Amino acid sequence: MATTLMSEADHARVATAVRAAETKTDGEIYCVIARASDSWFAHAGFAVSLAAMAAGLVVAFAISLRWGGANVAAFAFAQASACAAIIALLWRFPAMRIAFVPKRTRYRRAHQNALRQFLARNVHRTAARTGVLIFISVAERYAEIIADAGINAKVPQHAWNAIVARLLVAAGEKRYADGFVEAVQSSGALLSAHFPKGASDINELDDHVVEL
Questions:
Q1: pLDDT, tens digit (0-9, with 9 covering 90-100), for 61-99
Q2: With 90 as the cut, is the pLDDT of residue 48 above it?
Q3: CA atoms within 13 A on the CB side of 115
Q4: SS3 state at 147
Q5: Residue 105: other Cβ atoms inside 10 A
Q6: Helix, strand, coil percentages for the chain (3-state, nearest 5)
Q7: I want to staple 6 with a disulfide (CB 3.0 to 4.6 A). Which of 10, 94, 139, 169 is the partner?
Q8: What is the pLDDT of residues 104-131, one digit of tens each?
Q9: How far is CA 66 from CA 40, 63, 193, in A?
Q10: C-alpha–C-alpha distance, residues 147 and 70, integer Å
Q11: pLDDT at position 91
């Protein structure tokens, strides 16, 4: 069984924070944490293989200039062996892969995952369109808050950005529960100011943290 990112006590802390925040607002808060938003094997393998081949061509050219030629078959075999060894390492040690993926690509894939979770968890299906997803993708060092249409009309993006910045700091220190609790409390304060709890409000989304 895979080790969880957060302990049972951590999960309970976040759930308690969500329930407390939602006592003051019609908004709904949902938390998701993902180990990674992609396996990154194909991306890393392609990037490393391309780099290895490019480096090999430079080496071959240098050898040709210095010694007047090289055994083409032996060189091709050495280059193929190097690529195979690198691919094997990437397969055996998944944590290495992310280092070979550009930041923009990592963030784009993590953002796509956040959008998928927003839809898959029905955060967009609340009656007043007041759902909020708080999302962390650990491998990509990415965090995001996605608010539904009803909230975006009243809460400016920079307000969420400030919460995300603090969430990223906590996530970077592996204090996931602390980060979620603070983000939930701050989000709850924003929501209560614009969407105070009404008499007919019901809890439409689960309060627990989902781990992927």
A1: 555 555 555 555 555 665 666 666 666 666 666 676 667
A2: no
A3: 6
A4: strand
A5: 14
A6: 60, 10, 25
A7: 10
A8: 888 999 999 999 999 999 898 888 888 8
A9: 39, 5, 73
A10: 61
A11: 64
Tokens of 76: 């091709």
What's at 29, amino acid-wise? I
What pLDDT does residue 150 have? 85
The candidate with the shortest Cα–Cα distance to 182, out of 192, 168, 172, 167, is 167
Quote the pLDDT of residue 51. 60
Rounded CA-CA distance 153/50 in Å is: 46
CB atoms within 10 A of CB 64: 11
> 90: which 2 tokens?
């990437």
**Token pair of 41 as six digits:** 């094997």
Q: 34: which 2 tokens?
A: 């993902």
